[in-house]
Amino acid sequence: MIRKLFYLLMLAPLSAFCQEFDFGKPTEEDMNFDRTRIDSNANAVFLYELGTTKFSFDSDIGGMRILHNYHVKIKIFKKEGFDVANVVVPLYKSGIDRNQEEAISQIRASTFNLEDGIMVESKMNEKTVFREEKSKYVTLAKFTLPNLKEGSVIEYEYTIESPYLFNFRTWNFQSEYPKQTSTYIAYIPANYRYNVSLRGFYQLTETKSELSSACLRVAGKDMDCSKMIYTMKNLPAFIEEDYMTASSNYKSAVYFELSEVFYLNGSNQKYTKSWSDVDNELTSNRDFGGQMKRKEVFKTIIPTIVSNGDSDLQKAKKIFEYIKKQVKWNNYYGKYSETSVKEVIEKRSGNVADVNFALISALAAADFDVEAVILSTRENGTVNKLYPIISDFNYVVAKVNIGNESYLLDATDPLVPFGLLPLRCINDQGRVINLKKPSYWIDLKASKKSHTSHSLIGKISEDGKISGTLTNLSMGYDAINARKEIKKYTSIDEYVEKLDEKLNNVKIKNFKISNLDSVESALIEEFEIEINTGNTGDHRQVFNPFLINPLRKNPFKLKERNYPVDLGAAREERTSIRIVLPTDFSVKERPKDFSLALPHQGGRYILQTTTNENEFTLNQLFTLNKAIYTSEEYHYLKEFFNQIIQRQNNDIMIVKNGK
To answer: What is the dihedral of CA 309, 313, 317, 323, to 10 degrees?
Structure first.
């Protein structure tokens, strides 16, 4: 949910805004805060949180900087809340220009405890702050507050100086802990125009806009600012659950995007542009459009890859496989190339854009109709569609058009088959960039459902051991995940050895894995196994027949979920178990047949069991027919999983005839 805020119109009545609060002066109310006022189960509560962001003119470089001050006071109730005292502050940098790096300063932090009725302050030594180079684009500043106890109040403050003006400073009202009051104050110079939007489920409690005179001095001239104040109160914790995209899509937060700047010399520069403007910028950019045109690099290579008798689809698949094998992704994202297609082929390494521009150029060299698609990955959040914000996009893939079909391709992952994007790319919509035609939106959907089938054929002995053959067949994302799990180990033997160690009461006697490197085919895993049911040779045996990949825990536990369930792809799982019984044994009790469906054909679970004189058969079908379920459908989905878990807790009883 995105709501646009027109800050120039926010002239709200004067009210009690929580603004600056003195550092190092926790009150009696702070120390004795009653968490039942906001969340009786909270391990910690943010009592007061304040962010203040303003412009500063740096005369040394002759440019503007952003100064952001963060100040927070937190009450800790349980040891499980001590994590809130481990503070990590990301600092961004360009990786090239030292003037384009963020810096942190003025750090102070204290822990307050009541000891024998006396307030005791434990100050953090600033020398304990350390920095970790997470990547060439991000440095992490880390510190931990001292002397933590249940009942402590911690307080810390720091200032970040940033050269990045475009997004000003995003303010997240919600976090993993509940907040009593969160206030953000933004000082925007009169000659800067920002588009301001509010995301998330919760509304602002209070807003205010007022004039701040002489808030900034540039070249000896004072400038006025709009002082904007945003407050939310009594915010619940944002609880992340399985099957979601970036939490930033759903947390209540205020976002800024630079629209226009009016300079002192009378000129102005617009940053909010049309897609036509963005198209021209991208296609004329050396590191984007310039690399899409480098098909001459592949003139002599293409004839060695494809054959005259190949169909267009076969040619495209061969080129795709060639790039996947020739160029290794260096694990960096990006929509711009860091080098050239020629160097990428020579060095056989590059970022996402390097790899996929090489793919685009190679396909173009083979006379394919190929385009680029810019997108935002799942962890990066969704893009703003009200107006083009190029910084929202952090990834680029290829789109090749063959006949009446189009295929989205990403050559960074050698385990991904033709036409299926890595799951990280399945995120709402991308923008198709063509060198000659206007850009347009395209849905980023999985082209194949995730599918796994299990088959167990075996027999059970009188001493309760099941011996037989288990065959797993997987396709789509299930196959990708299975292949990645196997590839984690140095050999298939090591993988099976570790798998054998993980499986309780199961011993793997032999195995065969097919199509491990043939990613266009289903992955097939065959195991000769022995399962110990725990029975000891009595005339009666009771065991759970859901022996393969049972559902034991419901991934959906929230009372209410205000964001969708995003699986990335529809799913299907089939299970077939056939067990031959010992001589003179028969089934006395077995799980009852059961069928359950989600509303609007959203999914289905079918359980069927049959018996004859010496055999027991169990068949299951579990389908989720949608990639995304709305928050309104969450309740049905949660209960769907609950019902399946209950059914799979039922046992089978076999007895010796006449006993």
So the answer is: 90
- Please state whether the predicted TM-score (pTM) of the whole model is above 0.90: no
Average pLDDT, the chain: 92
Give the angle 238-556-629 at the CA atoms, nearest 5°: 90
d(CA 367, CA 449): 30
On the question of pLDDT at 8 being above 60, the answer is no
Nearby residues of 639 by Cβ (< 8 Å), 6 or more positions away: none
DSSP class of 93: B
Give the range among 7-16, 254-263, 409-418, 586-595 with minimum mean pLDDT.
Answer: 7-16
Report how far residue 238's alpha carbon sits from residue 400's, in angstroms, rounded to the nearest whole number. 40
Q: Are strands 615-624 and 571-580 parallel, antiparallel or unpaired?
A: antiparallel
pLDDT in tens, 269-309: 988 789 999 999 999 999 999 999 999 999 999 999 999 99
pLDDT tens digits along 591-640 = 999 999 999 999 999 999 999 888 999 999 999 999 999 999 999 999 99
In which region does residue 518 sit, left (phi positive, over 0), alpha (psi from -120 to 50) or beta (all else)?
Answer: beta
Looking at beta carbons, which pairs linking 301-308 to residues 24 or more positions away fall under 8 Å? Answer: 301/345, 301/362, 301/365, 302/362, 302/365, 302/366, 306/366
Instruction: Give the count of beta carbons closer than 10 Å to the beta carbon of residue 583.
Output: 9
Rounded to 5 degrees, φ, ψ at 320 are -60, -45
Burial label for 580, CB within 10 Å (0-12, 13-18, 19+), is middle
Q: Cα–Cα distance between 121 and 147 in angstroms, integer?
A: 9
Q: How far is CA 574 from CA 172, 420, 450, 625, in A?
A: 42, 22, 11, 14
Residue type, 328: K
CB 605 within 8 Å of CB 643: yes
Of 639, 591, 644, the closest CA to residue 618 belongs to: 591
**Residues 561, 558: Cα–Cα separation, whole Å:** 6
List the structure tokens of 92.
Answer: 């961004």
- Measured at the alpha carbon of residue 471, what is the angle toward residues 465 and 473, in degrees to the nearest 5? 150
Helices (H), 268-391: 275-284, 289-292, 302-305, 312-326, 341-347, 352-365
Q: Which two tokens stand for residue 380?
A: 């990066």
Bridge partners for 132 per DSSP:
140
Read out DSSP for 6-67? -GGG--PPP--------TT---HHHHT--GGGT-TT-SEEEEEEEEEEEEEEETTTTEEEEE
| Alpha-carbon dihedral sign for residues 392, 69, 143, 179 | negative
Please say whether the beta carbons of 585 and 657 come within 8 A. Answer: yes
Give the number of C-alpha atoms closer than 13 A to the C-alpha of residue 144, restricted to the C-beta side: 6
Provide the CA 250 distance to its chain's centre, in angstroms. Answer: 12
Cα separation of 411 and 350, whole Å? 11
Using the structure block, give the residue that is written with the tokens 């304990």: 128
pLDDT score of 136 = 84
Q: Is the dihedral of CA 326, 329, 335, 337 positive or negative?
A: negative
Closest residue by Cα to residue 478 from 452, 454, 455: 452
Q: What is residue 481's predicted lDDT score, i.e. its pLDDT? A: 97
Tell me the two tokens of residue 531: 């399962």
pLDDT beyond 90 at 17: no
Specify whether the backbone of 363 is left (phi greater than 0), alpha (psi in -120 to 50) or beta: alpha
Task: Answer yes or no: are the C-beta atoms of 154 and 38 closer than 8 Å.
Answer: no
Return the beta strands (E) in 585-640 as ranges: 585-589, 594-597, 603-611, 615-624, 628-629
Reported residue count of the chain is: 659
